[in-house]
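Problem: given the chain below (183 residues), write out its structure.
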Amino acid sequence: MNPSARLLQRARDGDSEALHQLLDPHWETVYRLAYRITGHVEDAEDLAQEAFVRIIHRLHTFRGECEFRTWVYRVALNVCLSSRRRRRPETECFDALLLRDRTPGPEEHLLQRSFQRRVCEEIRKLHPSYAEVLLLRLIEEMEYPEIAGVLRLSTKTAQLRFHRGMKRLRERLKPWMDEEIEG
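Solution.
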């Protein structure tokens, strides 16, 4: 039995130290996902906690058919998407697009924020199957095989949904882009 399998078994057997060792490395990723879906710190904290409660309660269902990280992400994504479906649409946004490394000047910052808000609005309007793949690929920077594992799709389907989602997103943004260029 490899070390991670032993750690998993100890966690399943009720060893709280093993549980912490198993789950702590995933806290930031789960929180970041929740924040990117909700756009609110408090909601993200609540959803991350809810996801970890669900992960702990379902630890016995992990069969090792995928990486543990992928399974954790799938559970967390399901919790976040379930919550999103329960919320009013105007409270949702993929504000993670606002989190970028580069620091623009004041004018560029205003334009960038405006564009990012528009992208958030348009992603929100896409069918969830496209929005999920766009989030995982663009924001979480996952590769297609990992996206396929999280969403329980084939790699080819994940690629197809990404490309179709991007096409629809571009179509939705085109009138706005044309308006900005003319203005």
